[in-house]
Amino acid sequence: MPLNIFFGQTPKPEPAEMTGLIKISGCDNPKRCGDVIFVHGLGGHARGTWHPQELRNDDNFWLTWLAQERPDLGIWSFGYKAEPFEWRGSTMPLFDRASNLQEYLEVYDIGKYPIIFIAHSMGGLLVKEMLRNAQTFQKKTVIQQTKGIVFLSTPHTGSHLANLVDKIGILARTSVSVNELKSHIPQLRQLNEWYRQNIDYLEITTKVYFETKPTQGFLVVDPDSANPGIKDVQPTSTDDDHLSITKPKSRENLVYKGVSQFIKQQLLINLGIVEQPTPKVKQNNSSGIFENTDGQVPLNSPFYIERPEVEIKCYQSILQPGALIRIKAPQKMGKTSLMSRILEHSKQKGYRTVSLNLWSQENLTDLNNFLQAFCATLSYELGLEDKIDQSWKRRLSSQVNSTNYLKDYLLKNINTPLVLGLDDIDKIFPYPEIAQEFFALLRAWHENGKNEEIWQRLRLVIAHSQEVYVSLNVNQSPFNVGLSVEIGEFNVTQIKELV
User: Fold this and answer.
1) Minimal CA–CA distance to 167: which of 108, 218, 221?
2) pLDDT tens readout for residues 284-299
3) Exposure string (b/e) for 148-159, b if CB count within 10 Å is 16 or more?
4) pTM for the full model?
5) N or C: which end of the chain has fewer CB within 10 A?
6) Could you confirm whether domain 308-486 is CATH 3.40.50.300?
């Protein structure tokens, strides 16, 4: 907001469609993974504030860059009137505007998915007041779904610009919005104190950027005012003034890259994922030595192509009691790598995880031999003694013996859920007698979880690359229950990531 707006002619009224929640991209996607909402500051515009040239009808700006990078997200911008002086337009007190924002969120059904706010200047105060208002009136959905807030030069303890208006005698009366920004006024201190005291309870992650260059000779929001004073939150300085901090000119801009990374981290942290560091490519003279990408891609590999919409669904599903996830993908399209990430996610949640591949020919001679090998290997992987000989009853079928062994011994002796990964399960398709009985068992164990608590500990992840051609009773098949995940060919963007 250049200072010359104080001296210009009264602008034309802003178009109605630029106020309220403005859809930028992905907002109508019912399968999106989250919503990112931009909130401008004093005298700002829903689109112009965020554009390098302040253009209002051009799509080449960082909100659309984020949309291209993350098509699985809804990108929104909240537009509202907050003029520096009453003669520039009517403004609403902060509390009223916060209620207005909250109503827009409810009308647009925001709260089904995780929310991240990106707020500039007064927009940060507006977001905090909206959350305080939501807490007061028991609007739990938005509070629970707000996972992170990025503050861009927000005056948590006041703004020098608000003080400046008192020194310019030719100006008209200040508006409510400017009065609310006056440095260290009690309301502003109280709002920041509320945020500091409630941030841990609300489980909202905070990131702060602040300006270091003056705007028309004035540092609008100084470093102290921009610091909300939250433990372990270190504000980041930028080579920007109060206006340019919202207008990245390229995807290499510090604010753009930092916000992009913050969004990614908060969506993953919300699901309990901790990102692994990316390994450096080893250099040998002038040639780069890259890892062998055949088979599973290592967890920390830069060659793994993320599919956020798929991964987040899997990470959420595996936390459900008695979960079953079915992954189908062509060879070398990432099903094993996805399974390993589901298991790693489960491990980070404190679950036991085991990945089995028992499809060698010596294990597939007959059903009894196969199920004994299955139970024995599972015992070994869980660090439990092999009690097959003591537990296997000759008068009972192999299916009953293996079920009892799993229920009465293995599951009973672990105190956490067990996530069992079965990769390349289509390799037993050529052995129909074994396949039919084993698949019926998987289905039965999954169904048992609906009625017996102990079976809810068992979570299954099965992966295959072929269509299921084994003849199965519809009520005994694991291929028509649980979460179905199909991984297709890479799209153009994903291919570019690999190149």
Assistant:
1) 218
2) 443 333 444 445 555 4
3) bbbbbbbbbbbb
4) 0.56
5) C
6) yes
